[in-house]
Amino acid sequence: MLHITLNRPEARNAMSLAMVEELMATFEAVERDESVRALVLRGGGGHFCAGGDIKDMAGARQKAADGDPEAFFRLNRRFGEMITRANRLPAVLITVLEGAVMGGGFGLACVSDVALAAGDARFALPETGLGVIPAQIAPFVVRRVGLTQARRLALTGARFDGHRALSLGVVHEVADSAEEVDKKLAELLTQVRRCAPGANRATKALVLDVDSVPMEALLDRAAREFADAVNGDEGQEGTLAFVQKRAPSWADDKEHR
């Protein structure tokens, strides 16, 4: 399990271009390393991420004033490339959402496989109130909560807490104390450890392709991957462990099925 902390507490972990590049490098490494079964993304200093970095915006504005018409496009699109990569990450992506979860932080929450929020976390898409748009975030918000709610959230800039985020489908778990957050995170990681790493990666790829691959082709692929899994090392070990009433070799705990 890999734990990554967004660590700009003085800026409520606002997403700078440097942070985007560091996350991209991390995701690339995780894609190559099949031993990483889950990546836990959390913010330092009591906040997850308050959105984009104003300093980067100012820098892009200066570049545009100096004659670079693509400065804002490149800055915004690079974040989109990062969040797309996060969405397709083979490992299980878990976000721990505390304090400010806004703009880009909201987007990262919407591409996580499991989102755990503090009850008093503060969620919002504030972009339109600043005269800009949630350009790279909005498509993932639509996928997460549906078109009707995404329209309302984006067009009003509504702010809400972790409990409301749960009811909207932005997050999957809510905890009302720091101790409960840590307890629920430990439980989630235990659940991930009970799942076969290869099966998890194949399953994630399968569900992510539902909207982009024709159904019959997807089901054909799924059947082939199922056959390969049954005959593979994980399938054989999982079946044997079930028959023998023991935990499979990939599970770190000693709890029996």
For the largest beta-sheet, the strand count, sense and barrel status come to: 5 strands, parallel
Order of helices and strands: EHEHHEEHEEHHHEHHHH
Mean pLDDT across the residues is: 93
Task: Write the CATH architecture name of the largest domain.
Answer: Alpha-Beta Complex
Distance between the termini: 22 Å
Strand order of the largest sheet: 1-2-3-5-7
The level of helicity is 40-55%
CATH homologous superfamily designation of the largest domain: 2-enoyl-CoA Hydratase, Chain A, domain 1
Helix count?
11
Pfam families: ECH_1
Family: Belongs to the enoyl-CoA hydratase/isomerase family.
InterPro entries: ClpP/crotonase-like_dom_sf (IPR029045), Enoyl-CoA_hydra/iso (IPR001753), Enoyl-CoA_hydra_C (IPR014748), Enoyl-CoA_Hydratase/Isomerase (IPR051683)
Protein name: Enoyl-CoA hydratase
Task: List the topology elements.
Blueprint: E1 2-6, H1 17-32, E2 38-43, H2 54-65, H3 71-87, E3 92-97, E4 100-102, H4 104-111, E5 114-118, E6 122-124, H5 138-145, H6 147-156, H7 162-168, E7 173-175, H8 178-193, H9 197-208, H10 215-231, H11 233-243
Features:
2-enoyl-CoA Hydratase, Chain A, domain 1; 257 residues; 52% helix; 2 domains; two-stranded parallel ribbon; alpha/beta
What is this entry, summarized?
The protein is an alpha/beta fold. Helices cover 52% and strands 12% of the residues. The chain folds into two domains: 2-192, 2-enoyl-CoA Hydratase, Chain A, domain 1; 196-243.
Question: Describe it for me?
Answer:
- The structure is a single chain.
- The chain has 257 residues and is of the alpha/beta class.
- It has helices at residues 17-32, 54-65, 71-87, 104-111, 138-145, 147-156, 162-168, 178-193, 197-208, 215-231, 233-243, and strands at 2-6, 38-43, 92-97, 100-102, 114-118, 122-124, 173-175.
- Strand 1, helix 1 and strand 2 (38-43) form a beta-alpha-beta unit.
- Helix 4 crosses helix 5.
- The strands form 2 sheets. The chain has a 5-stranded parallel beta sheet with strand order 1-2-3-5-7, with helices on both faces.
- The chain starts with a strand and ends in a 14-residue tail after the last helix.
- It folds into 2 domains: 2-192, 2-enoyl-CoA Hydratase, Chain A, domain 1 (Alpha-Beta Complex), CATH 3.90.226.10; 196-243.
- Mean pLDDT is 93; it is low at 253-257.
